[in-house]
């Protein structure tokens, strides 16, 4: 089976909506792979799997480990790995060195980085040297301290104008698609109309070229904080709790393990 390629994703502009989800592990990637076009190995892994308060503490090594696992667990989806905070902002050469490391060690198809006009030169440097880049504008979690929280972006005219120029700048610099996070619907529409590459919305309405959600949010596996734009498609957290309760009961009552779960001392003897 061939993976969805970066040029194929670029061609989806204005067509059938692109389906993306986050994934951090091989088993989850393997379950989700038949249904998605793109896996984003997001730095949200820091909050979702490691219990961090923000994505700022995520390291390159963590992203490489999770990225490689998702590549191993999938066959069909295009795997895009997030560059963590501090691994690309310093200079074009720092960004190239670390992005190349991520691609070599994970086997992923592309990397993602956050930022607008200020990252355009870096994006152009990477894309002209063989590194496909997905952009990320609007609410950018790595800038949570500068932005003053996770509130939706672009309600005011000045902020909306800035986000549109950010999207245009990174599209001109060569991103093959861009995540648009946490913006009001009219702005999502304007960004989508302004750029020639697919926009992938998260909390940005149905007027983007595709959608992404954090998998654990939509499966009910992450309850610390659920943004209002998330739809729960399942409540697996509840199913896990019920299974653990049943297991603990059976162990305490010595109902588990039963005879069928034990090795037969006679089996295999001649
Ligand atoms: O880190 C993340 O999960 C993201 C999502 C918006 C895809 O960047």
Order of helices and strands: HEHEHHEHEHEHHEHEEHH
Q: Average the pLDDT over all residues and give the rounded result.
A: 96
Question: Which of globular, elongated, flat, extended, rod-shaped describes the shape?
Answer: globular
Distance between the termini: 45 Å
Helix content: 25-40%
Report the portion of residues in β strands. Answer: 5-15%
Secondary structure tally: strands: 8
Structural class: alpha/beta
For the biggest sheet, the summary is: 8 strands, parallel, barrel
Number of separate helices: 11
Cα gyration radius (Å): 21 Å
Can you list the strand order of the major beta sheet? 1-2-3-4-5-6-7-8
As residue ranges, the low-confidence spans are none
The bound ligands are: 3-methyl-2-oxobutanoic acid
Question: How would you describe this protein?
Answer:
With 270 residues, the chain is an alpha/beta fold. Helices cover 39% and strands 13% of the residues. The protein has helices at 6-10, 26-32, 45-48, 60-73, 92-106, 120-127, 144-147, 157-173, 185-194, 215-218, 236-252, and strands at 18-22, 38-41, 78-82, 110-112, 133-138, 177-181, 199-202, 210-213. An 8-stranded parallel β-barrel has the order 1-2-3-4-5-6-7-8, surrounded by 5 helices. Helix 2 (26-32) links the parallel strand 1 and strand 2. Helix 2 (26-32) packs across helix 4 and helix 6 packs parallel to helix 8 (157-173). The structure holds 3-methyl-2-oxobutanoic acid. 3-methyl-2-oxobutanoic acid binds next to strand 6.
């Amino acid at each position: 089976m061939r993976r969805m390629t970066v040029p194929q994703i670029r061609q989806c502009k204005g067509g059938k909506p692109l389906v993306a989800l986050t994934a951090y592990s091989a088993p989850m990637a393997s379950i989700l792979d038949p249904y998605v076009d793109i896996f984003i190995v997001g730095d949200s892994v820091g909050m979702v799997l490691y219990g961090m308060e923000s994505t700022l503490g995520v390291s390159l090594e963590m992203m490489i480990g999770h990225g490689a696992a998702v590549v191993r667990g999938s066959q069909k989806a295009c795997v895009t790995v997030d560059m963590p905070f501090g691994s690309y902002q310093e200079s074009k050469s720092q960004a190239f060195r670390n992005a190349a490391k991520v691609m070599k060690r994970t086997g992923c198809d592309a990397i993602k980085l956050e930022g607008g006009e200020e990252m355009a030169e870096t994006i152009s440097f990477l894309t002209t040297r063989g590194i496909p880049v997905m952009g990320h504008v609007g609410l950018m979690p790595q800038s949570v301290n500068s932005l003053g929280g996770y509130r939706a972006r672009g309600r005011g005219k000045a902020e909306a104008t800035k986000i549109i120029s950010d999207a245009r700048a990174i599209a001109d610099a060569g991103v093959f698609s861009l995540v648009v996070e946490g913006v009001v619907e009219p702005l999502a529409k304007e960004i989508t109309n302004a750029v020639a590459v697919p926009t992938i919305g998260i909390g940005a309405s149905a007027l983007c070229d595709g959608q992404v959600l954090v998998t654990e949010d939509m499966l009910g596996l992450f309850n610390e904080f659920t943004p209002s734009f998330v739809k729960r498609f399942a409540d697996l957290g509840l199913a896990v709790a019920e299974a653990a309760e049943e297991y603990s009961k059976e162990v305490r009552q010595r109902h588990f393990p039963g005879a069928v779960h034990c090795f037969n001392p006679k089996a295999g003897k001649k």
